[in-house]
Write a sequence for this structure.
């Protein structure tokens, strides 16, 4: 039978029978010996395309054009491969010895099994997309509509700040710097078989991928808007929202978007031009990248608050939770000028330099003046003040004190503000050295916003310095599962495994991260430290030299060349003495100046008395390097020194048990 007649007989729908399977294309159901077999939507659609063209090769380009609307960001070879793999699992088929679906390398796929096409009643349709009314607003310009396509569906829900933090050993702040981009206002359904989003009993997992940005300065605005949208959606009791930090906008990281393990993915593009902002949002199913809906908006730059309201309402309605309401999200504002100023402040906060932080602080304060009940502006100001306190010797104590007041004010206005608790956790940990209070604050932030991967990483760091390695690894694993392409959980795992006496696991994670990004200097630095602690001194110096080369740090490259000669002639103690000379001279390295911690190098040089004195000075000066006193492998030779034990107790720590003595599980095993 030819493909045209297979689906049309007497006006009735057909089902296909092959082997012990029956396939109902309109509903997408596959029955095996009378029982329904669960099959992802895209996989069912691929099966329909292949059966209609049985015996013929269907190319990937053909599948792509059938499965996704034009220019969909999810139209990729990886998504097709994944959908076909799911289909083979459902059919119990093998790519090596296929019974149903044959792969033709570099060409496509072919359905090879004999089958019959029978007219008959289908099971109740489960793949239909509910009709959607395009959103309307006097201030929003409709750019495009459904035209000759079937009507689209309605959707609803936005704001998240990236808290500030720094990993030890030269790990710079790994905050969010992710792009957005967009076009206009209406969302249209692109395919007849596009399914609706089911409403499960448990929370729907929503992944908001990095937005693409277009236009001068649009990247910061795009990221600020994306995080704000994330916070608003996260307030729905039905949703668990994750704003990915590791993936990047564009084709290269579609695989990372799919790896978010979300039920629904949101992809965006923001264009800023001529005093207007255009935004396009695309919804797709998380497991198979099935296109669900597209929304397009066009607003004046001064009316961003209208854009926030409309996108929040549209997305929530599409996800079937319109009852959340149409007013501003809890902790947000209805003041258009305050909201625009808030987005500008967050944009400057993400630029990670002293001048931009000063500007961000001024803008957050202006937003607060415009709306004194704008909780997110208070928490944003708190984050900015923490950054200024941790990276400037000027007014450190004053900045921390004001940050604490601002974070508490945010919580007074919005008791569910997770970022307020995270700010208080950072202050308690990094400034007050009140570890129980810091842990309580971090855990409360995670309770309120469990999908925020930063909070898990920060808690992991706190648990690690206290020697709670198994718990620390669990938190890092959670951050990694929430955001698989984000580098920070990898770097954290390298650090934690190294401090916990697990160098092989530390190096294995480092190898994984280098496979993702071979030019990441921080990874080479961390791997270098793991090698050094494990007695692989030459490999360590080579890693540090590679990091300096990647950062174009000619001075450190020269120092590492000298260090290699010292190592070859006098061993690790000679290399350590070279580091101590650099510290004594007051020189600064472009690459990881934090590697110049004197107490560590005194130990490596065999000067334990000097190491004890340097550690005591760190504590007296409230130097954050002292936070690793109990777990830093550099201090292993001091473990039986009573003076060192006293300093550890003075910090409120106890000497930890190595990780191998714990029962634990890791995604990096």
């Amino acid at each position: 039978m030819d493909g045209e007649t297979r689906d049309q007989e007497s006006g009735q729908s057909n089902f296909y029978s092959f082997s012990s399977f029956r396939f109902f294309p309109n509903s997408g159901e596959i029955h095996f010996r009378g029982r329904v077999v669960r099959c992802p939507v895209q996989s069912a659609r691929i099966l329909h395309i292949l059966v209609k063209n049985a015996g013929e090769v269907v190319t990937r380009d053909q599948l792509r054009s059938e499965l996704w609307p034009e220019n969909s960001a999810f139209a990729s070879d990886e998504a097709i491969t994944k959908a076909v793999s799911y289909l083979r699992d459902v059919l119990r088929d093998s790519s090596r010895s296929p019974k149903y679906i044959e792969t033709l390398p570099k060409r496509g796929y072919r359905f090879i099994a004999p089958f019959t096409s029978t007219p008959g009643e289908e099971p109740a349709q489960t793949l239909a997309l509910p009709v959607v009314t395009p959103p309307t607003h006097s201030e929003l310009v409709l750019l495009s509509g459904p035209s000759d396509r079937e009507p689209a569906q309605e959707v609803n829900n936005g704001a998240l700040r990236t808290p500030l933090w720094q990993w030890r050993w030269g790990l710079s702040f790994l905050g969010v710097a992710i792009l957005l981009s967009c076009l206009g206002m209406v969302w249209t359904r692109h395919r007849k078989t596009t399914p609706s989003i089911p409403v499960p009993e448990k929370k729907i997992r929503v992944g908001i991928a990095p937005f693409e940005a277009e236009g001068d300065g649009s990247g910061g605005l795009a990221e600020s808007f994306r995080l704000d949208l994330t916070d608003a959606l996260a307030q729905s009791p039905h949703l668990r929202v994750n704003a990915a930090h590791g993936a990047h906008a564009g084709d290269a990281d579609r695989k990372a978007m799919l790896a978010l393990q979300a039920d629904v993915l949101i992809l965006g593009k923001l264009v800023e031009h001529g005093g207007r902002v255009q935004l396009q949002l695309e919804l797709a199913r998380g497991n198979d990248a099935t296109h669900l809906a597209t929304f397009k908006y066009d607003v004046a730059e001064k009316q961003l608050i209208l854009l926030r309201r409309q996108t929040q309402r549209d997305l929530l309605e599409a996800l079937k939770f319109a009852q959340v309401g149409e007013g501003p999200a809890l902790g947000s504002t209805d003041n258009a000028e305050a909201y625009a100023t808030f987005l500008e402040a967050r944009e400057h906060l993400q630029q990670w330099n002293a001048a931009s932080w000063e500007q961000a602080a001024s803008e957050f304060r202006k937003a607060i003046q415009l709306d004194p009940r704008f909780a997110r502006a208070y928490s944003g100001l708190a984050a900015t003040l923490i950054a200024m306190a941790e990276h400037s010797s000027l007014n450190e104590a004053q900045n921390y004190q004001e940050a604490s007041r601002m974070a508490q004010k945010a919580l007074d206005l919005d008791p569910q503000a997770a970022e307020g608790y995270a700010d208080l956790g950072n202050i308690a940990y990094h400034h007050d050295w009140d570890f129980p209070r810091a842990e309580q604050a971090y855990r409360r932030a995670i309770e309120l916003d469990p999908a925020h991967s930063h909070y898990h990483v920060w808690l992991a760091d706190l648990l690690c310095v206290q020697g709670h390695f198994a718990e620390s690894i669990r938190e890092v694993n959670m951050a990694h599962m929430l955001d698989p392409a984000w580098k920070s959980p990898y770097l954290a795992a390298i650090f934690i495994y190294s401090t916990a006496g697990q160098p092989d696991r530390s190096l294995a994670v480092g190898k994984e991260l280098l496979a993702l990004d071979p030019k990441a200097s921080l990874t080479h630095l961390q791997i270098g430290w793991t090698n050094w602690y494990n007695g692989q001194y030459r490999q360590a110096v080579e890693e540090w030299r590679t990091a300096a080369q990647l950062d174009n740090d000619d001075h450190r490259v020269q120092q590492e060349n000298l260090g290699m000669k010292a190592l070859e002639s006098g061993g690790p103690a000679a290399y350590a003495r070279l580091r101590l000379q650099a510290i004594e001279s007051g020189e600064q390295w472009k690459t990881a100046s934090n590697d110049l911690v004197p107490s560590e190098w005194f130990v490596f040089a065999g000067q334990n008395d000097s190491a004890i004195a340097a550690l005591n000075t760190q504590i007296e000066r409230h130097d954050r390097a002292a936070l690793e006193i109990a777990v830093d492998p550099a201090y292993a030779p001091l473990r039986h020194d009573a003076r060192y034990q006293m300093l550890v107790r003075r910090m409120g720590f106890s000497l930890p048990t190595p990780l191998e003595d714990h029962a634990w599980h890791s995604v990096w095993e």
The first helix runs from residue 3 to 6. DSSP finds 23 helices and 14 strands in the chain.
